[in-house]
Amino acid sequence: MRIKEVISVFTALLFLIPASPSVAADTSYTLGVFPYFSPSRLEEIYAPAAAELSRKINTHVTFRTASTFDKFFLQLKAQVYDIALIQPLYYVPAVDEFGYMPLARMREPFKALIVVPDQSPIRVVGDLKGKIVATPPAYVPVVHMAKKALRDHGLIGGKNITFEEMKTVDACLQQTLTGAAQACVAPPFAVGPFQKSAGITLRVIQETIQLPNLVFVVHKRLPAADRERIKAAILDWNHTPNGQAVLKSINTQGFVAATDADYQPVRDFVRTLDEPWLPSVP
Question: What superfamily in CATH does domain 28-109+212-270 come from?
Answer without folding.
Answer: Periplasmic binding protein-like II (3.40.190.10)
